[in-house]
Design brief:
Elements: E1 5-6, H1 24-27, E2 29-30, E3 45-50, H2 65-73, E4 85-91, H3 97-113, E5 117-121, H4 127-136, E6 142-147, H5 165-171, E7 177-185, H6 192-200, E8 204-207, H7 208-213, H8 218-223, E9 227-231, H9 253-265, E10 271-275, H10 286-302, E11 317-324, E12 329-336, E13 342-345, H11 353-356, E14 361-364, H12 366-373, H13 379-388
Parallel strand pairs: 2-4, 3-4, 3-5, 5-10, 6-7, 6-9, 7-8, 9-10
Antiparallel strand pairs: 1-4, 11-12, 12-13, 13-14
Helix pairs in contact: 2-10, 3-4, 4-5, 9-10
Length: 389
């Protein structure tokens, strides 16, 4: 794995003499010197910088982001828990972009096999496609959540880029994508046929205004993800100016941090990427600082995981049965006695049991239970039922 990486720019440690014993600058095992690659023994999280930005449309230069983010991240203090984090350095640009894609996918795949969660920083959002390919080797279907102002479907017949990675994922064979969710899209950035395609594929999308009105509803969406892809352009320009596609509207910085913490709390999530951060457009390193804080919240969420995903043992849950549509369907809900989080049990064909076993327990909220009690079908239940069938 080491052959893919370059060492971290020493500028990231320019204030190393100021780091105290509990700051990340002291606690993270980082690849600073050649020949001193961090050991992955007993590591929980691995920071992976990506320099590849040749397909970041209107935003080339975002490959420089990792060291700027580190400069701010290492100044932050860890929470009330011992962290086991390695910073592996930056995956250098390959001679061709396909070389870069292969390197990123291989690194993520190796980390996943070691049960280490990659935290990917930098590069264009097309790197999400490489992240997806890493799961192909694990032979399991996965869910992706993208926090983004648009869908990035693009034209599947053209070259992969940061605004077309989703179509490449959908068309890729063999396909291991079970569900895709968009959080925070802005309708004026999205063509109607793209919205129709999302509906046709039973993917779910959530408008910015809808999400911001009740940010806690993002938690069950993210709890269902294996991969989270965070495009920094989903954050409003005033909070994150460091992006060539920044927009006046978007999430506030604190909302972005809350979503990142939800991702960390998810027992199911096994990789996350923060993309499109461009130092060339940044003001006073504001975006890099925000990204560092988002990563801090993700780490904080990870070390506060409840380990209560009810896929096998349901004895620690309160079970609720709700019949709807004149008893045509019965929906079984489970509420964790440990965290008060909710799930719905969606039936699946017996012959598909092994293929879909990871997906029939759908994270939901109390409001979904209330919807079922009003004799209405929760959207999450119906979308999953259609896919499982």
């Amino acid at each position: 794995m080491q052959e893919y990486f370059t060492t971290i720019n020493p500028r990231s440690f320019s204030e190393s003499e100021r780091y105290t014993g509990t700051s990340y600058g002291k606690c993270i095992s980082a690849y600073i010197q050649e020949g001193d690659f961090p050991s992955l023994e007993n590591i929980h999280l691995a920071i992976v910088g990506v320099e590849e930005d040749r397909k970041a449309l209107n935003n080339e230069g975002c490959g420089l982001a990792p060291d700027y983010v580190r400069e701010n991240l290492y100044k932050l203090f860890q929470g009330n828990y011992p962290t086991k984090i390695a910073d592996l350095g930056n995956i250098k640009k390959g001679n061709t972009i396909d070389d870069s894609y292969y390197a990123v996918s291989d690194v993520i795949s190796q980390l996943l096999k070691k049960n280490i969660i990659p935290i990917i920083i930098g590069g264009g959002q097309d790197i999400t496609y490489c992240n997806y390919l890493a799961y192909q080797k694990l032979e399991q279907t996965i869910n992706i959540v993208a926090v983004d102002s648009c869908f990035d479907i693009g034209d599947g017949e053209k070259e992969l880029n940061s605004q077309s990675y989703l179509s490449k994922i959908i068309l890729h064979k063999p396909n291991v994508l079970f569900n895709f969710s968009n959080v925070g899209y802005q309708t004026y950035f999205v063509e109607q046929n793209s919205i129709d395609l999302m509906d046709k594929l039973f993917f779910d999308s959530h408008r910015l205004g809808q999400v911001r009105s009740k940010i806690e509803d993002v938690e069950p969406i993210v709890r269902n993800a294996d991969v989270v892809s965070f495009d920094i352009s989903s954050v409003r320009q005033s909070d994150a100016p460091g992006n060539g596609n920044a927009s006046p509207n978007g999430f506030y910085g604190e909302e972005a941090c809350q979503i990142a913490r939800y991702a960390g709390l998810s027992d199911k999530l096994s990789s996350i990427g923060f993309y499109e951060i461009n130092p060339a457009f940044d003001t006073n390193k504001q975006t890099a600082h925000l990204a560092a804080q988002m990563i801090w919240y993700f780490i904080d969420g990870f070390y506060n995981r409840k380990q209560d995903y009810p896929i096998v043992d349901k004895s620690e849950y309160t079970k609720y049965r709700v019949s709807i549509k004149d008893h045509e369907h019965e929906i079984v809900f489970y509420k964790s006695n440990k965290s008060d989080r909710w799930w719905m049990d969606v039936p699946y064909p017996v012959n598909h049991r092994l293929k879909f076993e990871r997906h029939h327990m759908v994270p939901c909220s109390y409001s979904d239970y209330e919807t079922a009690c009003r004799d209405e079908m929760p959207d999450k239940w119906w979308q999953t039922y259609q896919k499982l069938g």
